[in-house]
């Protein structure tokens, strides 16, 4: 079963870079949404989570606020 992972980022966020690297290293495909470049997505993110900071990661419908590798893996479906 495929994972649905949305990674909300900005250009200058070091934790966003760490999250991208982690997801790539784990072999977890993701869609990056740069809220710095897309104001409508930034507004939608705040409406959904009540948070303005990044990274925010939606993993199979579950929100992970900040770069939290353990939480990401908890919600991701990993096949060995």
From TrEMBL:
One of its GO terms (molecular function) is electron transfer activity. It comes from the Bacteria. Residues 5-63 form the Glutaredoxin domain. PROSITE patterns: GLUTAREDOXIN_1, GLUTAREDOXIN_2. Keywords: Disulfide bond, Redox-active center. One of its GO terms (biological process) is cell redox homeostasis. Pfam families: Glutaredoxin (PF00462). SUPFAM superfamilies: Thioredoxin-like. PANTHER family: GLUTAREDOXIN, GLUTAREDOXIN-LIKE PROTEIN NRDH. This is Glutaredoxin family protein.
